[in-house]
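User: Fold this; tokens only.

Assistant: Input:
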Amino acid sequence: MPNSFWQALFLSQNPTLGAVWGPIVGPIISLLSFVCSVGNVPLAVVLWNGGISFGGVISFIFADLIILPILDIYRKYYGGRMSLYLLATSYGAMVVAGFAIGGLSQLLGLVPAHHFIAVFQTRPSWNYTTFLDLGALVLAAVLGWRFLKTGGLEMLRAMDRTGGTPHAGHEMVHDHDEHHDHHHH
């Protein structure tokens, strides 16, 4: 979506109205975006760059608990009526939190003066995080290889067959020991 759409939606031309509207509309955007708790922070940055108020960003980030798939889970576990109750109370709490944190941050001068986000302007580069990421990939590959070579898959299959109970795992080791003893006698 173009920035002009977001700026119009967030009433960024009128900061006072935008400060009120942002926390109200932030959770609604979250509800419709299907973004999980990890993905909502980058999307919040996009919304901030688009002109949503700081309180709107806060309420948007809190609103990852009312996305449609989670509301469907609430419906399945608690029923339709309780799901609507959770939606309404959560939405209300998110809006109030957006107002409170946004207002307090504004009062204390903690809100950035501009909505420019440098990460949108920088190009990917080789830096220390690149090498840390590569090191983590190598470590994950080594640990995965070790898991496969030391019988990790068989252990998981045995846990799956026995329901993962500790006694079942102990019996499996015990059976292995008896089988081992049988070959030596």
